Amino acid sequence: MSQWSQVQQLEIKFLEQVDQFYDDNFPMEIRHLLAQWIESQDWEAASNNEAMAMILLQNLLIQVDEQLDRVSQEKNLLLIHNLKRIRKLLQGKYHGNPMHIAVIISNCLREERRILAAASMPVQGPLEKSLQNSVVSERQRNVEHKVSAIKNSAQMTDQDVKYLEDLQEEFDFRYKTIQSLEQSDKNSALIKQEMLALQAMLNTLDYKRKEVLSKIGRVIHEIDMLMSNMLTEELLDWKRRQQIACIGGPLHGGLDQLQNCFTLLAESLFQVRRQLEKLDELLTRLTYDGDPIPVQRPQLLEKVNFLLYNLFRNSFVVERQPCMPTHPQRPMVLKTLIQFTVKLRLLIKLPELNYQIRVKATIDKNVSTVSNRRFVLCGTHVKAMNMDESANGSLSVEFRHLQPKEMKSSAGSKGNEGPHMVTEELHSISFETQVCLYGLTINLETSSLPVVMISNVSQLPNAWASIIWYNLSTNDPQNLSFFNNPPAATLSQLLEVLSWQFSSYVGRGLNSEQLSMLGEKLMGQQVSYNDYQLSWAKFCKEHLPGKSFTFWVWLEAILDLIKKHILPLWIDGYVMGFVSKEKERILLKDKTPGTFLLRFSESNLGGITFTWVDQLENGEVTFHSVEPYNKGRLAALPFADILRDYKVIMADNVPENPLKYLYPDIPKDKAFGKHYSCQPNEVSKPSDGGVKGYVPSVFIPVSKILNDSTDPHSPSDLLPMSPSVYAVLREHLSPTVIETAV
């Protein structure tokens, strides 16, 4: 089943997450129509290779053309129209930058895998539960309801102001009428009657002015209370969800809803401002003793302007944190002289502001960091916000060509900085702009979450550990001195985040048993880790007992191994991975001989091994493990092929594959058959192909086990021998000769 087919079977709450990252940059129609073809291409490799990306883009357009031909024959007018529009959009947007669409599609496929993994995990961790709190959802609904009510109140007040304006015009007319009558006869009964009516009208006018001002005051108070309480909490919650999403957690949504609330409140405040301006016009035409307008209007206008200033300042947000396109799963880690992207949005979406706001990006503005390293931003660092680049029409700007450059120290050195010092330095990307609207001038500033600057890609793992620890431990957006005294983290939350690293980076999270093993490895013993506090040093700086590397370096090497060499096996759930040697033997001891499991090495960085159970003639149960395979060996021979072709030569010199069943009882070929590079019966025979005069060959991993030893032997004795050649040799050579050759 294709990945897209699996996505379509998800529950609605997961489908809503999928819907969030498909837009005009990569339309969902194309994802649906070309599902299998898209999944069969290596978009991640193309995101770092312009020539490959250009070929894939051209092939993508060809695929779209073929779909156009098909739907044209079916006379599907709507689909024909959409495909023509999409083809034109893709060609126009990516012809000059093909790697950009490779990055987008690679990210979309990765997010799909993460969501599929999240959907398959039965238990939510403490962080994810806190993000999906029912109280938070209820508050979101209350905010939307109150914003709608405020908008209605402001519109109703508009009608009151219009009525007041009509009433004052009638008063002006009658007043002028009386003035003309007074010139002829000041003492007539008609004039006295008109004067009494005019006084009554003035009393009504005074009452309506007070009523309008009171209603305006209530609207302002409701906006003030909403902004001070629920809307501020909503914005802070969104920023916290963004932090969690950046370190692999659930995708964060809700920004469009916030934009709707901010925009409606801004429109309401500007509407109230116009109402106050209208009252000022009425005041210039008529005032009297006890008139409430000159007393109350200045205070109300000052309050409206104050709320507008605060609303605009809070509405300027970093929608997508700084990230190198080459490392989409590692945001906020930036390498010198490598481009990164960052996107900002103004949550107040007013047509008058389109292309009118120019945003400037700087680094470490008005802040001091923990070292002497200083940086500048190269590339286009000033751009205008607009509504055209975003698929949802938001007022935003995306910087795509910024590069951090380190300034040379005046002392000619970078100071006394250890290996961890650089990756614990936090820096800030700042953005500033100015909004000029309806006579108001508002200066806006915002900053990214703290970023780590590296100069060598080897620093990436520790830099990413810093990003994880910071965003796990604090919701402070700008604590650049955080690592001067980093707080401890709750072990249960840390393990949840570690599972996210696997679900976001390699498409499948960790189950409770795997997390339990990691918890034991971190603590050195079995613990109830719900409320256990773990230090930063233990996570990333102190070596594991008896090892020359830290816990994080060990885990990062495993992630790299999975990503590059055993990804399909991991996604299928066939790699148990995190299991200790002791637990391994407990699991296997009662199983059928030939049952094996796959686990990651605890002593070799980025190593994977397999252990199988066997039974001697006397009934004794034995266990055999091969020396771990690392990325060097796996680059030469796919791991699935190793499992298929692995041979053991026992003391009687009869080679056989001891691997029969994947734990608990899955036939080996059923589990791994679809991942073999070729089926056994498809391996070349000695007379087939190859260079003339030579027998075609493949590598076969072979180990030798003596009866008096159960010690594992190295799998490094890889024979350059095809299965078919091996069969021919067995027909013509004795086992003794074969052993000698081995």
Automatic annotation (TrEMBL):
Keywords: Acetylation, Activator, ADP-ribosylation, Coiled coil, Cytoplasm, DNA-binding, Isopeptide bond, Methylation, Nucleus, Phosphoprotein, SH2 domain, Transcription, Transcription regulation, Ubl conjugation. Gene3D superfamilies: EF-hand, SH2 domain, STAT transcription factor, all-alpha domain, STAT transcription factor, DNA-binding domain, STAT transcription factor, N-terminal domain. InterPro entries: p53-like_TF_DNA-bd_sf, SH2, SH2_dom_sf, STAT, STAT4_CC, STAT4_DBD, STAT4_SH2, STAT_linker. It holds the Pfam family STAT_bind. GO terms for cellular component: cytoplasm; nucleoplasm. Its main location: cytoplasm. GO terms for biological process: cell surface receptor signaling pathway via JAK-STAT; defense response to virus; negative regulation of developmental process; regulation of apoptotic process; type I interferon-mediated signaling pathway; type II interferon-mediated signaling pathway. Residues 570-672 form the SH2 domain. It is found in: Cytoplasm; Nucleus. One of its GO terms (molecular function) is DNA-binding transcription factor activity, RNA polymerase II-specific. Belongs to the transcription factor STAT family. This is Signal transducer and activator of transcription. The gene is Stat4.
